[in-house]
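Let us practice reading a record.
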Amino acid sequence: MTAMAGSPHSRPAPERATAPLAEAIRPVLEKRGMSMRALAREVPVSSGHLSRALRSADGKRPTPALLRRITEVLQLPGDYFIETRRAHVTERLATDDELTARVFEEIDRAERR
């Protein structure tokens, strides 16, 4: 079940998070008056699984599918969480040799400054 327009879950959020997911999600939930358990129910996953994924505990990491479901439930842009943006960049780098070369050159130049 996703949040409906006009519900407390549909309040605006910043365009993109800059903190890791575990830190970035708390203020979003607070603004919406939503608990982690309520989010877990709506995603739907167990609250334990969600907690471990958010904290990267027990080898769990949020999958792109879990991040997508969280952003949908919270009505956030798909690229709101930095982990989603990182996964997208990693995927693009893995499949685009020219882009990888350009990014490497930029990083190399920045590190030599």
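A brief commentary: Residues 97-112 form the longest helix (16 residues).
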